[in-house]
Amino acid sequence: MDQQTQNGAEFELDLGWMEKQGEWGTHAEPSKNGLTLADIQVGSYAETPEESRNLSGRPRGAVPRPGSMPIGNYTVRTKSEIWLENASFLYEEALQRQWSSATDIPWDTIEPLPDDVEQAQCQMATFLTEVEFVAGDVPSRWVSKTSPDFYEARNVLMAQVMDESRHMDVFRKRALVNGGGLMRATGATAGFVGGIDLARDFTEMSSRLHLSGEGAVLTIFRMGELMAYNDAEKAIYRLCAQDEARHVAFGVMHMRYMAANAPERREEIESYLDEAEAGMLTDAANPAGQLNQTSESLSIMLGGGRKYFDEGFRKLVSIRKRQLQEYQKRVTSAGFGDRFKNGRSRLGHMMANVAN
After folding, report:
1. Superfamily, domain 79-352
2. pTM of the model
3. Where are the alpha helices (DSSP H) in the chain?
4. Domain-by-domain residue ranges, the chain?
5. Is the pLDDT reported for residue 356 higher than 60?
6. How far, rounded to the nearest angstrom, does the alpha carbon of residue 356 sit from its chain's CA centroid?
7. How far apart are CA 90 and CA 84, in angstroms?
8. Is there a contact between 330 and 322 (Cβ–Cβ < 8 Å)?
9. Considering only CA atoms, which of 34, 26, 67, 119 is closest in space to residue 306?
């Protein structure tokens, strides 16, 4: 203890925290892209435990504080349950590709549209606002349940929440900017989409949200050029697609890690994919989705108006087929492609016909 004097009174300093308890002298070196998350994975600070016992919010690599109390309800404490190899890359990409819905969209290019087309645009914007609410709300709940030892994955999820909040506001702005306004709620937060929030663990949630739900939305964004009537709408779909692709990549890479490192859970994951594909089969059996308001609005947008509905519907069928094809590619990349060859997937035969 060091003796110090302040205002005439002596007191002792406890400088125990200055003892070299970590890797003193370990330097994180910036790379050509700056000092990235990957660049600070050095020495023992890069070591991620297979199972975390950290319940105190302690940063990974910091020395435990004696007598610290549990402060978090960290139910995700096993590495395989949330890990992915490229989390650092996805996080850095999310930081570098942030955009503003206020200033990066050329709103001045939006001009009056025929009423039926504007109504369809606004209905689609209403639907996507609902969908993106779920896509942001669900991951945020899992962030607080994840051990700080897996902070890379947590950071990616927090970036996703920011992305989805921006998607919510950009589609709301599109609905309001041209005189149409929000249309009828579609109930997208019920059924399969809303059921994502009922997942019992993170991997179940990710398989439903990232592989199935966001994957289907990503296909729509990628086809945005077919639905856009001005540069503003083109920019919206393009920018949202780049974000959504990152979210889907999170799910694919996590499932790949899980398949390789927790083979005992393969059958469990297969069952989640079974549930997702059952919903896809229902939609695929009737590509118009029983002509609900979202499918009708898409057909009007794709066709160029109500009187060209049939042409728009044919384009919608093509989008539905593409959703199935891209889903198959994602699942295969994640390490579960055998289901399309061994008869496990009920979509296998349908996809073979789509390919032909």
Report:
1. Ribonucleotide Reductase, subunit A (1.10.620.20)
2. 0.89
3. 87-96, 115-143, 151-177, 191-195, 202-206, 214-222, 224-227, 231-261, 266-285, 293-303, 309-331, 348-355
4. 79-352
5. no
6. 31
7. 10
8. no
9. 119
